[in-house]
Write a structure and sequence with these properties.
single chain; mainly alpha; 3 helices
């Protein structure tokens, strides 16, 4: 499952980057309201990537304790909830 999750996270980021490029023309539309929301979603997605890489690194080094695992899950849940909230908000723009 852990090996599969790495590919899922990379696929998630790649599809988000493609959506950002095709829907908005990349960073060119940041001045628009939709562009700011997309940029914030991309930033949150990179935050998830950072937390995920940190967790994989800690697990490989044997430093992943139960407490650290619990906090990692909570952080990822909160950031993902923020991404979903922004996605739902963008529907009304």
């Amino acid at each position: 499952m852990r090996r599969f999750l790495r590919f899922v996270v990379l696929l998630l980021l790649a599809s988000g980057g493609k959506l950002f490029d095709s829907r908005c023309g990349g960073i060119a539309c940041v001045g628009a309201r939709l562009g700011w929301f997309l940029l914030l979603k991309v930033t949150l997605a990179f935050a998830v990537l950072g937390v995920f890489v940190n967790a994989v690194w800690a697990g490989a080094r044997g430093r992943m304790s139960v407490c650290r695992f619990r906090h990692t899950r909570r952080i990822v849940l909160a950031v993902m909830a923020g991404i979903v909230f922004l996605a739902r908000t963008m529907v009304y723009l």
